[in-house]
């Protein structure tokens, strides 16, 4: 796997989804705390809990932006150096179609981390972002948990792999 794609349809206007993807405070509420700015060339970070071989900081640079349909940025942290692309379009239902792809995973460890990120991002884009969009629209939902791309079980798997790598070279 050199990458993965997640596609979701949200029953919200494209402008609202765009705002949730590009407003630093809103982005931090469903993804991770950050210092993002929607400006090509802007270098920013996402911050989360550290893990083996990862200091908890994802270094990013905005490399493409076409408001309100396209945002792409680099994603470098631990052993991965990838590109995240977010594409928005109007869906026939009247809502917004979001296609998120993360590409560039190289090597066995990066491949495994990519698999875990895909699971975590499924939750982010499938539960946390929709909950925020509903909240922005004034729709009441149950509270979603805090921002972290990996579940505790996924973090445990990363730690086990790190221990295995130390033991076996």
Layout of strands and helices, then pairs:
Layout (H helix, E strand, L loop, with lengths): L2 E8 L3 H9 L1 H7 L12 E5 L9 E10 L3 E8 L2 E11 L5 E8 L4 H29 L15 H17 L1
Antiparallel strand pairs: 1-6, 2-3, 3-4, 4-5, 5-6
Helix pairs in contact: 1-2
Could you give a short description of this structure?
This protein has 169 residues and is an alpha+beta fold.
What would your notes on this structure say?
The chain is of the alpha+beta class and 169 residues long. It starts with a strand and ends with a helix. The protein has a six-stranded antiparallel sheet.
- Overall CATH architecture: 2-Layer Sandwich
Give the name of the CATH superfamily.
START domain
Instruction: Tell me what portion of residues adopts beta-strand conformation.
Output: 25-35%
Tally of alpha and pi helices: 4
Any idea of the CATH topology?
Alpha-D-Glucose-1,6-Bisphosphate, Chain A, domain 4
The outline comes out as: globular
- Spans of 5+ residues with little confidence (pLDDT < 50)? 143-150
Spatially, the strands of the biggest sheet line up as 1-6-5-4-3-2
Q: What does the main sheet amount to?
A: 6 strands, antiparallel
Q: How many separate domains?
A: 1
Round the mean pLDDT to the nearest integer and report it.
87
Secondary-structure element order, N to C: EHHEEEEEHH
Rg calculated over all Cα atoms: 16 Å
């Amino acid at each position: 796997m050199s990458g993965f794609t997640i596609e979701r349809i949200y029953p919200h206007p494209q402008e609202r989804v765009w705002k949730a993807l590009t407003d630093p405070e809103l982005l931090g509420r469903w993804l991770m705390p950050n210092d993002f700015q929607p400006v090509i060339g802007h270098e920013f970070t996402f911050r989360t809990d550290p893990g083996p071989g990862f200091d908890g900081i994802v270094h990013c640079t905005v490399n493409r932006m076409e408001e309100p349909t396209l945002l792409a940025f680099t994603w470098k942290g631990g052993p991965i150096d990838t590109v995240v692309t977010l594409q928005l379009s109007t869906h026939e239902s009247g809502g917004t179609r979001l296609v998120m792809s993360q590409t560039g995973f190289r090597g066995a460890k990066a491949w495994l981390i990519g698999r875990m990120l895909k699971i975590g991002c499924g939750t982010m884009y499938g539960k946390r972002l929709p909950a925020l969009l509903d909240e922005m629209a004034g729709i009441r939902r149950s509270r979603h948990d805090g921002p972290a791309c990996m579940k505790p079980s996924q973090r445990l798997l990363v730690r086990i792999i790190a221990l295995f790598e130390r033991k076996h070279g």
